[in-house]
Protein 1
Amino acid sequence: MSKASVIYDKFDRHSHAQGLKGHATHYCPGCGHGLAHKFLAEAIDELGVQDRTVAISPVGCSVFLYYYFDVGNSQAAHGRASVVALGHKFANPDSVVISYQGDGDLASIGLAETIATAQLGAPITVIFINNAIYGMTGGQMAPTTLMGQTATTCPTGRSQYNGQPMKMAEIIAGLDGPIYVERVALFDAKQRIKAKKAIRKALRNQVEGRGYSFIEVLAECPTHLKMSPEETEIWVKDFMEPVYPLGVKKDVATEPWFHRNPPSFDGEKILQLAGASYAHPVRHSDGFPTHLAPADISLKLAGSGGDGAQTAAMLIARSGINEGFDATHIPSYGPESRGGTSYADVHVAEEEVLNPGSPDPQILIAFNAPSLAKFGPTVRKGGTVIYDCSVVSDAPLLDPSIKVFPVPFTGIATDLGKAVVKNIVALGALQAATGIFPKETFLDAIRVALKDKCALIPLNEEAFAWGIKSVETLRS
Amino acid sequence: MALKERPKPFLLPEYCKGCGRCIDACAKDCITAGHQINPLTGLVPVELDLTNCNACGLCMDACPEPYGLRPAHEGPIPKFELEDPAKLYGVKPSDAPEPQDVPSVVLPLPRTEPLVIKGTYASAIGAILAGCRHVYGYPITPSTEGAELMAKFLPKLDGTFLQAVSEVAAVNMMYGTAGAGLPTMTFTSSPGFSLMLEGVSYMIGSELPGVFVDVMRGGPGLGNIAPEQSDIKLACHGLGHGNTQALVLAPSTPQEMLDLTILAFELSFKYRNPVVILSDGYLGQMTGKVQLPETLLKPGVPQWAVYGDALHRKNLISSIFLTETDLEAHNVHLNAKYEAMKAEVRSESFRCEDADVILIACNTPARTAKGAVQELRHQGIKAGLFRPITLWPFPIEALKAALQGAERLIVVEASAGQLENEVRLALSKAGVRDYPEIESVRRMGGILPQQDEILARVLGRKEVLA
């Protein structure tokens, strides 16, 4: 066959095309890469997709794929070609991306990337050159080295202590992601025709948006097998093929599915997603609640995961910001996802929050006994403690200057029919106990937070009112 | 069907490596192993005797060299091609997108009320406003909320969020998308950032933009998930192997998480280099007031982007320079770029003008230090805060100015001196010899320095001096 048009007229990237390098590959005599390149180039030509093709050069002997292919070229780190390919595919969904990798690259250092990309199933084409040896680093054991085969890192032959040969085509075919997996060889004219067809099909599957295809090519490496090119062909046939049987491992008829719209840059849509609001919040307070602190109020909310401490904390911070102050909220969770500890540090400052942590809060809201026991003693003198007396029976003795409000958060919330609103009961109690912000400030924040669940607003308003009422009852 | 006129093979011996695949392929025994070493190549090319050749073409199919065995006809594609292959499969090369150099477009964004969001969210929204629609990540506390928000928002903007199999895969997906010329980013935390460094080195070597938001946590090893300024060393001096540098930005509020993320994309494309945002576990999780900007960016496609079309396929994304002189020249070029990045230094000097005591801090500890400065001023002590916003390059000129007249210099940090090392290196490189002995307030393990610890350091020493 004549040279495919997708092969450069001159290999300018090959040592600046000096001497013969402008028209000769860097591969050794008898190497399988040249043929695999050729079949790939022909397939790109035949499908007419040169203008959309991006080839990912791996690490290994085929690291210089970009010397030869007149397509978009990106060179990847060792093992990472398949995910670089994904990066290109998702950047330009109409591109035809080829990840061309050797056995060390694909089946050893890049195994995680290889498997995950295959299982993702996005339409890319992976060409895997398996020659049972490391080429570029000089004849070390590959994941695909045969049992008993010698290599510089298994000089007496691969034994069980070196692990077993990795049968990638079978592994990839065992996944649900890929649609087409075939193992081919290059050792005679018949195999070469099959190889060429397989590569073309793998590429066409991508062009048509059908899915991920994987072609394993049993290739010859005469240099590191220390044989003549002819002997190597025989070796691949007689020794490799029995371990790596040729043929189609998977071929699933799939309708084209990979369609991606161009990204949106619609500002309104972004603002909507971000939850941004045009409405200027109404300020209800006359100024910073200096009766609590001159410029910065420190709060802590503590409970178990699921108590709603974080939501309540967020609502306090939002209320503060709506009033024109600065506010911060830092959550602190235990390692458990549910039922663990859940603490929130909140600050509201007239100008700027400078110490967002609350190691010694002025106000503590405790949702359970351990939280009250742990943080009660850290509350500053003259501070305020509000706790859920539905679940805390024995409150610890605190400094007499501290105002303590036992409020049955859980009891009230359960009576209202939804235990989850106990944090809103707590907010009502906070409002009544401290007067940090006017009632309406909290209610506005609650309504905004529930703007997508409007049906829940009355219940939350009621819970808030009950929190206030409880404190008022305690006071009377 | 046109009549097949099958060509016989032709071989320039210089392009034959003598592998002999063609010998087996030929049924007519026209090809034999050579006997003479070619003086140009040092290889032994095969020998052709085409007396019995029936032009079956199998030898040419077997030849691995593109310019090896070729049809004897010189010139363009031989006539025996049945049809234009492009027609067979429906897609013509001419149907491919036209190559064009698309400039970025700044679009107006209506003014809204401040958001009340956490730092990672602020950064994610900043990235979206900077035009990023391709985010790759791997979950790691305390950075995960950034990825989660992207996973929620990006599909609604026809963008891409992929959860990678590992941080190694994530950074290489970024490498791919960045190679296509598009803005891309990730959220990670210290152990994940360690894993990404291989890819960061490749991105720097290949001159690719990309934004890394590292929400630093306690280390070494698995450490814990609480805040530590544990990666300053890594970001400033350890971005993988080789001669690597990147702009390192250190926000200290949720607002800066947004602002500096937008800036990071701009700088990343300006210099074709990754930009690292070092946040801390507190800041990533902290909810605060965030005002959105009044513009957003629709990114263009830079000239250097890789794609298959005629214009862009001249481009190559690669960090390989096999010839030593080429690689040296590339490093000289990178160094010039690093030098140019020094124009991007940013810092905040808070009440440093008349300060006797200068505190140096970044990230959340800088907030605490600012609180300490106010408290100290309240007590009549002239304190000031110098806050580097770029950790690399270090804003040394601004620090020199802040240090004018200072009697004490205290570095406040949540690490074992990583920020102090940056300060010392910057002073040393700038040839500053005359500066106060450096004192420190340090916490580690996920604990941040507290205001009273800073006060104790400042006041304690003062009492001793008195």
Note: Chain B touches chain A through 122 residues (CB under 8 Å).
Protein 2
Amino acid sequence: MAKDKITSSSTAEYFSKNLQQVGFSSPTKAVLTTLKESVDNSLDACEEQGILPEISVQIEKLGVGTLKNTDLIRIKVEDNGPGLSLDDVPKVFGEYLASSKFGRGRCSRGQQGIGISAATTWAQLTSAKGVTVVTKTKTMRQPVQVQVAVDIKHNKGLLKEKKDGKLKGPHGLSVEFIIDGRIQLQGEGGLITYLTGTALVNPHLTLHYTLPEQKTITIPRVSNESPDVPNATEPHPHTMKLGEFIAHSHLFGRMALKAWLKKGFSRISDNSLAEFVKNGLDKKMLDLSVDKVSETQFKDIFSVIHKTELMSPSTKSVMTIGEASFSKSVRRLGEVDFFSVVTRRPSICDYKPVAVEVAVARLKGLSKGEGSDDGPVQVLRFANRVPLQFDKSACAMVKAIESVNWRSYGLQQPKDSLPLGPYVIAVSLVSPFIKFKNASKETIDASDELVEELRRTLIQAGQRLSRHIKKEHREQDLENKLRYIEQFCPILVDCLCRITQAPDKRKKKATEGLEKILGRDLTVAKKEFKEADLAAKEAAAKGKIQIIKDEETPEESPEENTPEVEVVEKKAKAKPKSAAKAKPAAKGKSKSSVSKEKSAS
Amino acid sequence: MRSDSIPKISKDLCNKMLADLENARRPILEAIKCSLDNSNYSPKVGYLTPGDKKVRTELNVSSVQKMSRAIFLLEVLLRNIDTGAVNTKRELYYIAKGEVKHDPHLKPLDFQDQSESDSVIDFICEMLECYREDLNCYANDRGGQTYSNQLVVTETLPDGTKAVVDLGSLGTSPFQPKNRPQSLQLKAKKKIDFCLVVESEGTANTFVANGFCKRNNSILIGAQGVPSNAVRGWAKLIQDQLKVPIFFFGDLDAYTIQNIYRTLKAGSAASLIRNSDFSAPDVHFLGVLPEDIKKYDLSDYPVKETDVSEARALKKAADALKNDPFFQDKRNKHLSKLLEWLLKNKRRCEQQAFFMVDPRDPTMPEKIIVEKIKKGIYL
């Protein structure tokens, strides 16, 4: 017998001792994770209610932190969401695993209900204060301010200091954490990287942020459509394991097997049932009551279902940003030269529905580091529209990027590495069940199926991009050749004539001959450029390339404009008239190109 | 090739190019391909010789820059031959830059760094199948410091006069051979028993200071790493004119065997056209040998594969076993086996390790070397 008593501890107790597992492994990460959890919750809440989110973020240093080498940081996030009732506030902010989304199979950012409670715990542990929440729902008369702490022993949220609060809008929620941490603005784990990344994959978001010693920056929304968060659909049989399949049957009680299959699963129709029979299922079994089916029979049914090809899982359960909105959002990244955007039709990877979206953009103006001319491209990773900022190398998305041969699309790339150049590759993965490598959701597990799906999307984006890059290369080639002929012809002939002491007559004839020879090369180069130009123009005619000649702000671009490759030729002054002229040409066609692309993929 | 034939060959070549241009035909420049895949080795010849492969540069928009630069530098080199002026590669780089500076029309030819003009000079040599020295271009060659009490060198100077240098009269100062060994005549005052080429110039200097040349009728040369043209040409001259056995003493590692010793013995792939005069096929590898480590209990140590240069040396050695005709030849099986041993065991032993055999006797390495030569313990 063991001498020590076996005791059980609460979930809160476990996480309070293992906060590093949920994103609080360093002071820098603590600030980012707290911000991230607050913004994620705000976005989820707004989308649930169909509200266009407007979020304000304020981060400031208040002094020196209690932990070594840390500052005391105040993080305040305010949204215009539906607000929380006072009953829900302690559950959301002070109780672990209390979530409205756990296991529901929806593509929300938060899933388990751990993150924001962990942030409260961190605040409590480092500054002895929980989180200050101000909330107002539509039914509340005025905003209420409370302080929430985590009762670590019992995994419960505790409300303190209830009083009247202030909010900007008619409804919404504001959270304020005072924590020990360190602020990193730029780079992979930087706050600015997080905020701009969040804006990129949430085109409907208006974001105001104030960071220490900086002016308030506003990133306005580029889409006025709040994404419909799809309801969870019935499970797809191919996404289940045998145990889950049998357990699922218990939810339906007495019911004929065929009725259960049709009602309890998505993508099973009468035709599918006929296919099952063709593939060896006993027809009589379909009329059996589900509660009478033995385990062996379940096994047979399950294997027949897996042998039979079914329609892919419902696309309704997987939401995407969409090529149109993503295209507009990409232009908020900075001075974009041109870009391509691909949204692939959802498919099954590792028994789960996933949708991948990729944007590849060439930027101007980066001189060193990631995304500069010589450095590796900047990779932005998103899972359910949340930026992933750490442990890049182990992530499925980076592995997929490295596996693509970008050289064939005109980019430089060392072997098995990220391509080089002033590009941003943004990869967004949306799925109700994303397989993360850890609880802090920093890296996506690189399964072969998922990497392949990501790779295909990247290839599609690269192919679209290459049309424009090839045209550029040909253009450059032609320019070089013209320059070379002009520069070197006279030098070569002069040198030869001096060495041979040839008379002027020979010199003249040789110059003419040389011009003829190089002229032939030039004709070939011109032809190649013409072909590349034609291909680019054809693509433009199909809506695959759009050339915008004047300065254009994202808001000015038409809503329905959905180019696959956009070429932004920015000039000094905006000329609204010509911009207006340029736009309608692509309007009608671009929409059809998206639908064509979707059906093709 | 003699220097005086170069202007004629160059003029003919340029005339042909000009005629091609007059007829709107693309001129083609051909040069021997100087690379391992175009190297042949025969033990009868003793050094790497070029195969049939040629690098053809046809005039087109992409090659017009290279061709223009080649003809431009050829003109500079022909002028040097005409006036008898000599230059180093570095000086030629600046001469080319000076020409560009004084004639703005030549600006497109401007070289951004010396490596660009160097490669054009090498291309001209390969095209004309001549030595760089034939074009009056001399490298600032290092290494080859030579000590001997028996050797007398007679040098024919450009003006035809002769200079006689008795190496025995130089004390501990070395004689430095130039990279045009053809102008030197060697004579032995007394019978010379052997010539020893030591990889480390510092160790060669130590040997002399400790009286190596007083006790041994020998020629002692410090190679200073990979032998330069001067060292290679000098060793060839000693081999041919004095007919004394030559031994190489260096580290036991892949780089020394595959790069330093192979270059001294059989030349290199990069200088295929000059190996006949710049390699000494009779040179033997005296050590350090793997058996020396056991016999003298020398301190050896593992190769650091994490070190970029050492990892590269191992990779190059593995490539040499597969692709280098020198190591593939049956007669050099003992050397390829040594390379295999080094690749397998991944250990190295430095030449200076001989000083640990008897740390109180500074002449111990000399004693071991002389014993090895007498007993024939070398490859």
Note: Chain A has three domains: 11-219, 237-307, 319-601.
